[in-house]
Amino acid sequence: MPNWEDIEAARKRLRGVAHRTPVLTSRQFDEAAGATVFFKAENLQRAGAFKFRGAYNKIKAETERRPVPAVVAFSSGNHAQGVALAARLLGIRATVVMPTDAPQAKIDATRGYGAEVVLYDRATQSRDDLAEEICRERGAVLVPPFDDDLIMAGQATGAVELLEDVPDLDAIVVPVSGGGLLGGWATAARRLRPAMAIYGAEPETAADTKQSLAAGRRVEVKENPTIADGLRVTSPGKLTFPILRESLRDVLLVSDDEMIETLTFMLERMKVLVEPSGAAGAAAVRHRKADFSGKRVGVVLSGGNVDLPRLAEYIAARPSL
Amino acid sequence: MPNWEDIEAARKRLRGVAHRTPVLTSRQFDEAAGATVFFKAENLQRAGAFKFRGAYNKIKAETERRPVPAVVAFSSGNHAQGVALAARLLGIRATVVMPTDAPQAKIDATRGYGAEVVLYDRATQSRDDLAEEICRERGAVLVPPFDDDLIMAGQATGAVELLEDVPDLDAIVVPVSGGGLLGGWATAARRLRPAMAIYGAEPETAADTKQSLAAGRRVEVKENPTIADGLRVTSPGKLTFPILRESLRDVLLVSDDEMIETLTFMLERMKVLVEPSGAAGAAAVRHRKADFSGKRVGVVLSGGNVDLPRLAEYIAARPSL
């Protein structure tokens, strides 16, 4: 579990490197939600998601300990781009391991940030063996997506910024997948505002964190078809789960339709692009999955990486509230 | 022409009422443009465009002089929504006069902000007669879209904010239609940073300001088919034109395709929704309509009000750079 010193060190590393993302508000969203909502717009973060904070903090911290000739990560999503950009800024070679069926747009975007992409066949190759090989051959350091104190400390810096801008929040709602974002946010929140209620938000078809909290242990779910491709991790992390268990009031579940309705609303009225995973917290508040009446609620918009043709499909399929 | 005191008074009126919009940057945009660009995101302003600043400043200033029982405006665009929201916040009844062929979405949005919408037939009715009637009957004050010192002073507050955040700009590029936004920005810019080059940007098919500057007098063009529906005014204003003539280095012309290419780029990579008119300045810099190499350039994203089905069409029609 990261401590406060880890978070303060992360803030120093990220100063002038990560964007201090704006806090957005919308009277119309508030009317629908029955609450006063403050959106931390991490979709406007560099590389389009909060992931850059953790990746940069992790890699920079490692370089402070020893020479880091290269880094490696597995991801077909926002973590890939966060690691690629962070490594480039630090002048370190990055290799990102992706499945052969990853969307071409994600592969291109990761290469666009200067990383080498190594493809593997999910059916016949072991991702872990491949990783070990790359680490051994190149002296590369693995940058895990969530289960790491330095990663969590980096993500936590967004929470510190939000609480500086809006100190008197009653609750925060944060999308949860592996739990790196939420673990970091919960750690910062409990230090800075212990009375605040902390909620996770995840798709109802990928509710591993909800189920794990109910069971009191890490439950592994089958991969389920949700449009929220950033929230498909099948189990909370070893390091993140104890933090979530100690910190969370509840995990709120949202449907694909609720995420699409929310992200198209935010696009139309708030003029920002949020990906389905990034809209899970907002959807939970907008669709009143807990009683936030009259409360001041912080919500993380965790990412904005959507292919535009996919976005056009969401617009066409848009459900009404 | 608004003076500095007008702009300072506008800042006081708008404090805590208008959003202080963020300044966005994009390494990838910079690479394409060959310049370092700072975007003043007025698409994230209340009611989705810079128009709210001028409308609120105008109405509030009028209430300081005398009782204002009602206001009236003609607009089928962002001015309508800016006036409607400003009036509502000030507890004043607003009537917006729109042509019968205005898009239903714009009519609905204006009503959504609490204004009464009065429709008129372009073919058979005189807009001016209608206005006069409403003003006479209701004691309403007309809120003009651009040709007014209080309107320009309100718009100028965005320039002051940008120059506070990024003081060392070499140039600014601002979409121009009637010239209220650009007139306000130019006034503030000449006071705060006299050496900075000031550019307008308009569609090549609606180049009334460019032509007027060349002719040395206000030229009226025929209404032309550009997708930039906010930039279809056919002539610069009486009050705005002298300011533009004194202040502008040039007016840069952009095509519809260049605006679509730019706004889809900004959506995909910067995660913000900009309407075609709002992207005219950005398109001029991105498509290198003047030599900005190595320069630090401020660009106004003036609005973000696009119907989502229309946006889906832009995505489908997206040209490459």
Break the fold down into its secondary structure elements and pairings.
The structure is a homodimer of 321-residue chains.
Chain A: H1 4-14, E1 23-24, H2 27-33, E2 36-41, H3 51-65, E3 70-74, H4 78-89, E4 93-99, H5 104-112, E5 116-120, H6 127-138, E6 140-142, H7 149-165, E7 171-175, H8 180-192, E8 197-203, H9 208-215, H10 240-247, E9 250-254, H11 256-270, H12 280-286, E10 296-301, H13 308-316
Helix pairs in contact in A: 1-7, 3-4, 3-7, 4-5, 7-8, 8-10, 11-12
Write a brief caption for the model:
Helix content of chain A is 45%, strand content 16%. Chain A has 321 residues and is of the alpha/beta class.
Task: Write a structural description.
2 copies of one chain form a homodimer. By secondary structure, chain A is of the alpha/beta class. The first copy, chain A, has 2 domains: 4-49 and 148-316, Rossmann fold; 51-142, Rossmann fold (3-Layer(aba) Sandwich). The first copy, chain A, has 13 helices and 10 strands. In chain A, strand 7, helix 8 and strand 8 (197-203) form a beta-alpha-beta unit. In chain A, helix 4 packs parallel to helix 5, helix 8 crosses helix 10 (240-247) and helix 11 (256-270) packs across helix 12 (280-286). Chain A is globular and about 55 Å long. Chains A and B meet through helix 11 and helix 13 of A and helix 11 and helix 13 of B.
